[in-house]
Amino acid sequence: LSSLPLQILLYVNGVYYIFYFLATLAMIIYKSQVFSYPDDFLAPDLAVLFLMTILEVPRLYLGVKGNLTEAEAPLGLSLGLTVGSVMLCVYLLLWQTYVLWADVLLNAVLLSAYGLESGLKVMAIAAFVS
């Protein structure tokens, strides 16, 4: 009953998130050097990025574990962590100090992946329960 599309998407999302983290970190550093980035806003933007990374590791681990063991609880926890990651991604998309077009592109791809992944998780949980 394990979902192969979900497993593939979890793997791809893990690889993409590494790229996303490095690109977003580089853009925050770039924006702090090029623009007049207020010091009071640099720390929260970096904190959101690192908090998102802290959430991403267990989210992906629980998603893979829940899918491979066909267990609803880890997949449900992973789905809950996805909600937190989506909120942090929306912060980086809409409310960080400076939003570049590359930020919009990176966050749009990540939000799309989260949406697709969430749908597949719900379908997998429904298959495991029945």
From TrEMBL:
<feature type="transmembrane region" description="Helical">
    <location>
        <begin position="42"/>
        <end position="61"/>
    </location>
</feature>
<dbReference type="InterPro" id="IPR019184">
    <property type="entry name" value="Uncharacterised_TM-17"/>
</dbReference>
<feature type="transmembrane region" description="Helical">
    <location>
        <begin position="106"/>
        <end position="129"/>
    </location>
</feature>
<protein>
    <submittedName>
        <fullName>TMM80 protein</fullName>
    </submittedName>
</protein>
<feature type="transmembrane region" description="Helical">
    <location>
        <begin position="73"/>
        <end position="94"/>
    </location>
</feature>
<keyword id="KW-1133">Transmembrane helix</keyword>
<keyword id="KW-0472">Membrane</keyword>
<dbReference type="GO" id="GO:0016020">
    <property type="term" value="C:membrane"/>
</dbReference>
<keyword id="KW-0812">Transmembrane</keyword>
<dbReference type="Pfam" id="PF09799">
    <property type="entry name" value="Transmemb_17"/>
</dbReference>
<dbReference type="GO" id="GO:0035869">
    <property type="term" value="C:ciliary transition zone"/>
</dbReference>
<keyword id="KW-0966">Cell projection</keyword>
<dbReference type="GO" id="GO:1905515">
    <property type="term" value="P:non-motile cilium assembly"/>
</dbReference>
<feature type="transmembrane region" description="Helical">
    <location>
        <begin position="6"/>
        <end position="30"/>
    </location>
</feature>
